[in-house]
Design a protein that fits this description.
Elements (H helix, E strand, L loop, with lengths): L1 E3 L7 H10 L21 H9 L11 E2 L9 E3 L5 E3 L13
Parallel strand pairs: 1-3
Antiparallel strand pairs: 1-2, 3-4
Length: 97
């Protein structure tokens, strides 16, 4: 799987707070997010359907499933460098509700 960091919607207040606290927004617990895996040929149709009911803003394609390497997730950074997106090591931050 290959993700594009620039396509992942992170609000400026969240991005700023993560920078101050030294956190990566991809690893911070949150609620109200939805991720769907659909065939590439149906991605535009799926985005259009979800947009009709998406209260949190327009849906976005953030990546694609690649055939190899199996089981690996990569992230293309804002500067265009692709790196392996590792699983979170240690405990995730507690949820504050």
């Amino acid at each position: 799987m290959a993700l594009d960091e620039t396509a992942v919607p992170v609000s400026e207040p969240v991005r700023g707070a993560c920078e101050i606290l030294g956190l990566d927004p991809l690893y911070v617990a949150n609620e109200g997010r939805f991720v769907a895996f659909v065939p590439a040929a149906q991605a535009d149709a799926a985005l259009a359907i979800i947009a009709q009911a998406a209260p949190g803003g327009p849906p976005t394609k953030i990546g694609e499933v690649r055939p190899a390497p199996a089981g690996q997730v990569t992230l293309r950074s804002v500067v265009g460098v692709e790196r392996v997106l590792d699983r979170l090591s240690g405990e995730q931050l507690p949820r504050i509700c």
